[in-house]
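Good morning C.,

I know you're traveling, so I'll keep this short. The sequence:
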Amino acid sequence: MQQLQAELEIEKKKSKEDLRHKFEAMKKESEMAMETLKKESEMARAKQAEEIEKIKKASQETMSFLRQMLGPRDG
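The tokens, ready to paste straight into the viewer:
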């Protein structure tokens, strides 16, 4: 009976270690995925900021052109 209990304890310890290793692996995978998502998000924000600046510049150029075309005329 003691031998069975000892074997059971050994199996419990092995199971516990296996679970701990699986948990650590999943934790690392999760951290890596979060880091990847963070980088992708930062890249998307930078691209959006760049696009906004392009639109602002185009808008300013358009407004400047319209002011020249519609401005006071000598005549």
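Safe travels,
E.
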